[in-house]
# Entry
Amino acid sequence: MRIGIFDSGNGGLSVLHEAYHILPNQEYVYYADTKHVPYGIKTKEEIRDFCDEIVSFLIDKKVDAIVIACNTATAVAAGFLREKYDLPILAMEPAVKPAVERLTGDEKRVLVMATPVTIREEKLENLLKRVDQKHKVDLLEMPGLVTFAENEEYDSDNVKAYLKKRFAGIDGNDYSSIVMGCTHFNYFKPLYKEVLGENITCIDGNNGTIRHLADVLNLDTNSSSNMALELNEPQDIVVRYKTTYYDSGDEITDNKRLSKILRMLTRLEYVRSF
Ligand code: DGL
# Structure
């Protein structure tokens, strides 16, 4: 099958990367809307229009299903897109449920990080009403990490200073886990542990989303999905993982831009175990 995956930028590569592990035999079309990133500080109308354009672009590329690899786009556009288009459209939302389910006693809490739009939207409020009846979840906006990720700045002094500032007043010992409520945040998993303490667990929804996709499309999943990916040459990712990449509608074929994607996938391979 041919699967379309999109995000405001390269955060959704974390979802594609998980798909390479779990569904390595499918074909992929990845669309990064780098012309409009970041979405998390834009208006709902703007984000909805961008997503509408991307979905119709992906449908032109003959995809069988689409994954919205962006919590922000999901929050404001998933309902609208599903109503408008016929094919399966899967969406991401912060993995709050598994995080709350892991809580054993009363003493620890869950910290959900997301973009300002995701935090403001009703979708997250409704999710919390459903799964956080004991009010164990705290929310934290982290808009700055999106740009750091796009610039491949994962553990510079600037990133560390930003995280320290955003986590000021937060004691890592009070939390059992930290939820990646934005796909761009996956790149920084080692840093959260550095700042909040090694005992905190990082939770993302990528594995659950791809397994759900496999169910919806009735696809067999890879039984050795933890094997390291083959990420050697820029062209490997196009050929070996049968993926066409687009930068806001422009197909990426040059080695310079493919090398950036390769480096980002390599980073995701490294942070997968954190
Ligand atoms: N990666 C996106 C998310 O999951 C959006 C980040 C942004 O563009 O602000 O929310």
